[in-house]
Design brief:
The chain contains 15 helices and 14 strands. It is an alpha/beta fold. The structure holds guanine (GUN) and zinc ion.
Length: 412
């Protein structure tokens, strides 16, 4: 049967086959200055030099898109963000626990209202797309309607998105509190309604160890492991006061990570935001169990949480993705996030190269979310999920591109 919807796209193409690592290992990426993508039935059929891809398409009807002077990349992947917090970006000062109580929880209360949730879900998804982000792992709020609203809006836009209803049954305002039973019932119903529908996936979402009882964490672990295709997201070791509170609440665990391990909340398809205050053994255990970390530089700077150590995580072999963590994070843009990631790694005297940065924002993120079979690069069979960026989007960029000599410089 002839393929429908054959599309040929021409421009400067970059995608990654592997992590270039701290040494920018050649062979980890493919770069085609005059490149092409051939797409059929919404999937990548070929990626390579324009002349070759064009020849492969000859003889069949194709729709052609030409982007001279533009960079074609796999859609950017934001591995940790809170859509309900977009309206509170840049809420002043203080550190995590005060910020949650003063701004975050009151803002999230508004998402009991389905209309508000629907409006904000549409707004956030449109802005993510405008910034080139086509996949994200997203916290809804503790209200099931907030997850319904986000799933519906993502489905309308045919985006590969993960989200889940936040679980929290203690140490938070009554308006946001659920119970073990309601959290399980709502999550199971959401999984039935949305998981695997179109490009959507469900991610079991206990907020963090402070706001869930032992019984709720145990339920979340059982639910996560109840089928092999669910995801899980939470927060880990973001802030010093948070770590101290976890130690008080879980005296039986010597380290924060151990709490999540004890309740079966780690392993492949799980991802934890921040992971700043961890020791080498914890990085090693996360690598061993296939538990991913989301590096959230703008949030970590804004909330004064600390400087994530990418080199230590990488040496241990942890799957790492990059994330905005809006609204602790200050921008929905993964490009702005990359800029701050570079600076945070400078604090460790290990600046992030352009190659490694773009890897983290694309294939690295897809791997961290265990979505690399579908997205993340342009290997044949993957979903045709890509973005087209303008090298000369602003007068400042045009000015810089005039002097950038190498591909590294242009990408950086
Ligand atoms: N830890 C628990 N909840 C949150 C949240 O909403 N944002 C951040 N940055 N950290 C958290
Ligand atoms: Zn977060």
């Amino acid at each position: 049967m002839a393929e429908r919807d054959r599309i040929l796209v021409r421009g400067c193409v970059l995608h990654f086959l592997d992590d270039p690592g701290a040494e920018d290992r050649a062979g980890a990426w493919q770069w085609f200055d005059d490149g092409g993508l051939l797409i059929g039935d919404g999937r990548i059929r070929a990626c390579g030099p324009w002349a070759e891809v064009n020849a492969q398409a000859s003889g069949t009807a194709v729709q052609r898109f030409n982007y001279p002077g533009h960079l074609i990349l796999p859609g950017l992947v934001d591995t940790h963000m809170h859509y309900a917090q977009a309206e509170m970006i840049a809420s002043f000062g203080h550190q995590l626990l005060d910020w949650l109580g003063n701004y975050t929880y009151p803002t999230e209360m508004r998402f009991a209202d389905a209309e508000h949730a629907t409006r904000m879900a549409g707004f956030v998804l449109d802005r993510l797309l405008a910034h080139g982000t086509t996949t994200a792992s997203v916290f809804a709020t503790s209200h099931a309607v907030s997850a319904d609203a986000f799933f519906a809006a993502a489905h309308e836009r045919n985006l590969r998105m993960l989200t889940g209803k936040v679980m929290m049954d203690r140490e938070c305002p009554a308006e946001l509190r659920d119970t073990v039973e309601t959290a399980e019932r709502d999550s199971v119903a959401l999984i039935e309604r949305w998981h695997g529908k179109g490009r959507l996936g469900y991610t079991v979402t206990p907020r963090f160890a402070i706001t869930s009882t032992d019984a709720q964490l145990a339920m979340a672990g059982r639910l996560f492991k109840s089928r092999p295709d669910l995801h899980l997201q939470s927060h880990l070791a973001e802030n010093v006061a948070e770590c101290a509170r976890v130690a008080e609440l879980f005296p039986g665990s010597s380290r924060y990570l151990e709490v999540y391990e004890r309740f079966d909340l780690t392993g492949p398809r799980s991802i934890y935001g921040h992971c700043i205050h961890l020791n080498g053994d914890e990085h090693a255990r996360m690598a061993q169990s296939g538990t991913a970390q989301a590096f959230c530089p703008t949030s970590n700077l804004f909330l004064g949480s600390g400087a994530y150590d990418l080199a230590s995580a990488s040496r241990a072999g942890v799957r790492v993705g990059l994330a905005t963590d809006v609204g602790g994070g200050t921008s929905l843009s993964m490009i702005r996030t990359l800029s701050e990631a570079y600076k945070v790694q400078q604090m460790h005297h290990a600046p992030l190269s352009a190659w490694r940065g773009w890897y983290l924002a694309t294939l690295g993120g897809a791997r961290a979310l265990h979505l690399e079979d579908c997205i993340g690069n342009f290997l044949p069979g993957k979903e045709a999920d890509f973005v087209v960026l303008d090298w000369n989007a602003t007068p400042e960029m045009r000015c810089r591109m005039d002097t950038a000599r190498t591909i590294d410089e242009r990408l950086f």
